[in-house]
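Hi! If you just cloned this repository, the fastest way to understand the data is to look at a raw example. We've pasted two of them here, unedited. The first protein comes first, obviously.
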Amino acid sequence: MNRLVISRPGAGVIGVVFPASHDQGVLCRRILEGHARDEGIPSGEDAVIGLVTSELLTNAIDHGGGGGAHTFQELGSDVRVRSKLTVSSSGWILEVSDRGGGDPEELRAFLDPDGLPDLEDERGRGFFLLASSVDSLTVEANPEGDGLTFKAERRYDSAGES
């Protein structure tokens, strides 16, 4: 099983597919953040991309079929996480897809930043922070139908409003 697979399908776009373990997720995050800097993101956006990338990748590893494996060697099967970061002059889009099943409808309630999360509930606080940091955060079934795809979008012209 290959570890990281990197693709560059177009200008400003990088894709990384990796085994669903935290050590591989850290490498993926570094690659995505480096790509964003190389593409010339505005000052301050690196912190936002770092938070969003870390949260979405960690969620995919812990809940998306990897079982929270800390190392590549701990994975019992070849479970992959797909990520794609598109950076343009007006903003960025991060997509993260897992293979852990899940119902997008069940998670959509956690993506609404208008209400405060229930601090007694162990679910939803991370999504609240993410949704508050970006212009749009959505969840859908992944293209294969066996997991979820989260899509975070941020436009630079509204960075001060988030």
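Ok, and the second one:
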Amino acid sequence: MHTTFKNKRITVMGLGIFGGGIGVTQFLVKEGAHVTVTDVKSGTDLFQSLRYIEGLPLTYHLGGHREEDFIDMDMVIVNPAVPGDSKYLQIARENGIPIDTEINIFFKLCPASTIGITGSNGKSTTTTLIGKILQQTSKKVWVGGNIGRSLLLQLEEMRPSDIVVLELSSFQLEALSSIKRSPGISVVTNISPNHLDRHKDIGSYVLAKKHIILHQKHSDYAILNYDDPKLRTWETKCNSRILWYSTKHSVENGAYLKNGHIVISVNGNTVSIPCVSEIKLPGDHNLHNILAASCAAYLNGANKQNIEETVTSFPGLEHRLEFVREVKGIKYYNDSKATTPESAIAAVTSFKDLVLIAGGYDKGSDFGEFAEVCANHCKAVILIGKTANTIKELISRKRRSKEQPHVFIANTLNDAFQKANTQAMPGGVLLLSPACASYDMFNNYEERGKQFKDMVFSL
């Protein structure tokens, strides 16, 4: 037990419909704290998350926050999704109440070495791959962070020789900067505008991401995507040793592709792994993710065989360019996790003869480049959600006088699916890759992806 929390009165702000506050709540109760959970959403909205903390000795203030929970307390733990300028956090600051986050608590108490992964796209795939490669070695590996589970409850089992692999969001990194901590090995996949509904502007979003390297030590490593022009400018900001990875260039230190091999070169040692033709994941962006993961795992003792076996057998993650099935010669792919134009562009450019379903909630993204890629790569585009009209207008401008793609607007995902099936032909691909969040029509991207897969399976 850590005496830091015993008998302390602690407010957990934001349980979240995705359950972002579950792990820290369970941990604090176990540590003997008196916990109040507060959320603007009602108990009905939060019922999925509440199931996990049922029966714990907690005070609940749901359906809105109360000022006293931010005045008369020893500490406030805030969920990453809560905006930093919340008036309740302001009240806590004015009353001298310490504010912390789950990830900060984890970093302060974690005895193991850490690999942190961030980026606008590809984080979850890269994190999962690193975990799977390292699980082939003799080391004990823990995978968590933004990828779905809190590791706070596992702290007691962790040893200094273990490795923790953490997916880190821009919000989590923003919080980590307050305690000036970065992972020992940091991987950054790419940087493109995202979450501009939460970050003031692209500058503050990029700065949040940059915290993953800003507090590293000289002996640490930063593994950066050489093919991303924004990341190349980070070289001067790194205190640590930089390893680059690239699908286009041979890099001196890092990982690259050569004659169907993955080549990893670190501190004068080079390994060459002949496996590119066996990789199952489609798209150049996935080759980037594989290079980044191979490089990070190699630094932690993975050998040629560990890397080759994992990257050639890995089928990908659910809802991330996931192959669902083939029916009557049409291949169906579920890429519901593509909640930004950039991740949808990566999906669209991975295929030929493509019918695309896209659109959804508007989180302030620029769809210009996405519309251009659709105009050049798609046979037909069926749009849903709040952004449908905007994207349709942009595609028709970029299409100029060409016949294709045909663009349609549908009211529901079901209507879109029916329409898309009339446009798809044997030998072609029908892809759900929305380029948008799902909140205008679904609880989350998983629900959207599951509905799509159910429709494919009922064909």
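That's it. A detail worth noticing about the second one: The longest helix spans residues 284-299.
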